Design the sequence.
């Protein structure tokens, strides 16, 4: 009787452990072919305008000139989505018209993500973690159900709170360094104006470097060429208004999603 219970618990543990990596692999594969969400506005004319600005830079970095640029009014200021079908950079609507040099600096940050396939690498972390966890737990804990569940939960917590955050932060710092090293003086100044604008708002914590650390990095890059630049409030006033509108839209969008789920 006890052997049957033991075998049953082992079977449950095996099913539980293997269900996680299967779900993660399925999610990873589907993310590579996920279509553009409805919240993203693709405009052919705007896309051509941005590609024209960065045409030479994209060619120098061996990136596809048919890169899709989508505009969005809610969420982060900029982001990337890399799939097997296409590469997309999502930008905050009206940012290009508000401060072109700030736009160029942030866009080069996103180009680093596309060039390095960072979104694919980040998405690949989950299935790699899940599969490696199964083999680790089978070796050290066996397949008994309760130890398998507890051990997996502990490993998952460590992964999400430590490893995943470390990797995501590494990608963001790498992208910042790429943008700084490949930007003109005016673009560095634009990046600094964006930092000053962000510091005026209560922002949601992200994996990006803090505005203070970005400010130091941009100031250091300008000081290397003998320039000390402190933007006046008038210079980034338009950016503050744009970011506030983005925040308001983001809050309104989340509230609407909550209402729809009720």
Sequence:
């Amino acid at each position: 009787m006890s052997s049957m219970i033991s075998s049953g618990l082992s079977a449950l543990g095996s099913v539980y452990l293997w269900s996680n990596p299967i779900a993660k692999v399925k999610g990873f594969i589907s993310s590579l072919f996920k279509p553009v969400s409805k919240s993203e506005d693709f405009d052919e004319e705007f896309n051509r305008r941005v590609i024209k600005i960065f045409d030479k830079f994209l060619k120098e970095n061996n990136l596809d000139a048919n890169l899709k640029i989508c505009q969005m009014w809610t969420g982060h200021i900029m982001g990337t989505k890399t799939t097997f079908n296409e590469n997309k950079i999502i930008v905050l609507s009206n940012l290009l018209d508000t401060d072109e040099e700030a736009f160029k600096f942030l866009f080069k940050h996103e180009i680093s993500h596309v060039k390095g396939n960072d979104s694919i690498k980040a998405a690949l972390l989950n299935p790699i973690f899940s599969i490696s966890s199964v083999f680790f737990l089978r070796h050290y804990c066996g397949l008994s159900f309760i130890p398998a569940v507890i051990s997996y939960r502990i490993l998952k917590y460590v992964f999400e709170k430590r490893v995943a955050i470390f990797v995501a932060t590494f990608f963001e710092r790498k992208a910042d360094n790429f943008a700084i090293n490949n930007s003109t003086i005016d673009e560095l100044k634009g990046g600094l104006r964006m930092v000053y604008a962000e510091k005026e708002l209560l922002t949601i914590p992200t994996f990006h470097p803090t505005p203070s650390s970005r400010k130091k990095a941009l100031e250091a890059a300008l000081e290397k060429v003998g320039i000390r630049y402190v933007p006046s409030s008038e210079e980034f006033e338009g950016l503050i208004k744009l970011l506030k509108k983005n925040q308001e839209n983001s809050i309104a969008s989340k509230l609407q999603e909550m209402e729809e789920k009720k």
